[in-house]
Specification:
Layout (H helix, E strand, L loop, with lengths): L7 E4 L5 H11 L4 E6 L2 H13 L3 E6 L7 H13 L4 E4 L14 H35 L6 E8 H5 L5 H21 L4 E8 L16 E4 L2 E4 L4 H9 L9 H11 L11 E4 L5
Parallel strand pairs: 1-2, 1-4, 2-3, 4-5, 5-6, 6-9
Antiparallel strand pairs: 7-8
């Protein structure tokens, strides 16, 4: 029996990259996994792999920034699996520019996806968390549930050209710490993982200066020039970027019973770079 057998895990942005690795990590432990991605086809591919690994999947496609997304995301977990045990707010992307060239839409987009979306999702899950905790307390049981919000070293330490992203990701840290104080009484551990360089499609090496992905009709530049990627790698004490699976491991670790007394914390996962 897996460690998360019959437990339900919600993971935003889990069609690719770190989010996908998180979904698959929990699947290997028998979890019910609610998968999300902008691209339904990609989300369904992850869901199929979740099932192959022994988990039970559900798919909620669409943008986490949509006003009704949070309620839909939480509702499918409760309708199909009758509970929520873990919420991972992972969805996001970068949209870089120096401040004098950054317009309001570019600024707001990062706040919407990285900060407002997690707020709405956890607000929607709050009714269930409170009701479950009340019932368990009355029965004399202590049951812990977990929230991990994904931040970035850009938010913790700053990064030129990312004022919007850095502001949103540092906001995630403050949001996490406040919610940990609010939800401690419900036995919900709320923590943040701030990633350094992890190799995904957004950070892969490329010689194409015009490499981009489509995010809701916006062409967002992706990739890092090989020479620059090599310089960054040399500055990391462990000598290389992280993998999505290693990123997933740090998130999974905070969701295990071993972390039941860990809440309101920021875990920097950057290979020792800072």
């Amino acid at each position: 029996m897996g460690a998360f057998e019959n437990k339900t895990v919600l993971v935003t942005g889990s069609g690719r990259g770190i989010g996908r690795a998180v979904a698959l990590r929990f699947a290997t432990e028998g979890a019910n996994v609610v998968v999300n991605d902008l691209d339904r086809e990609v989300a369904e591919e992850t869901a199929a792999e979740v099932e192959r690994l022994g988990g039970k999947p559900a798919v909620v496609a669409g943008s986490v920034t949509e006003a009704e997304f949070a309620d839909r995301f939480v509702a499918i977990a409760l309708d199909q699996f009758s509970g929520i045990d873990v919420v991972i707010n992972n969805a996001g992307y970068t949209w870089d520019n120096v401040i004098q060239k950054m317009d309001d839409a570019q600024w707001q987009a990062m706040l919407d996806v990285h900060l407002t979306a997690p707020f709405r999702i956890l607000r929607a899950a709050g009714d269930y968390f409170r009701a479950a905790a009340k019932e368990e307390k009355a029965a004399g049981r202590e049951v812990f549930r977990k929230v991990v919000n994904v931040s970035s070293v850009s938010g913790v330490f700053g990064n030129a050209g990312q004022a919007n992203y850095a502001a949103a990701k540092m906001g995630v840290v403050g949001f996490t710490k406040a919610l940990a104080k609010e939800w401690g009484r419900y036995k919900v551990n709320v923590n943040t993982v701030a990633f350094g360089l992890v190799l995904t499609r957004l950070t892969q090496a490329t010689d194409d200066p015009n490499a981009s992905v489509d995010v809701q009709g916006r062409q967002i530049k992706v990739g890092i020039q090989p020479e620059r990627l090599e310089r960054i790698s040399q500055a990391i004490p462990l000598g290389r970027p992280g993998t999505p699976e290693e990123g997933a491991g740090s998130i999974y670790m905070l969701c295990t019973p071993d972390a039941n007394y860990v809440t309101g914390q920021l875990l920097v996962v950057d290979g020792g770079q800072r």
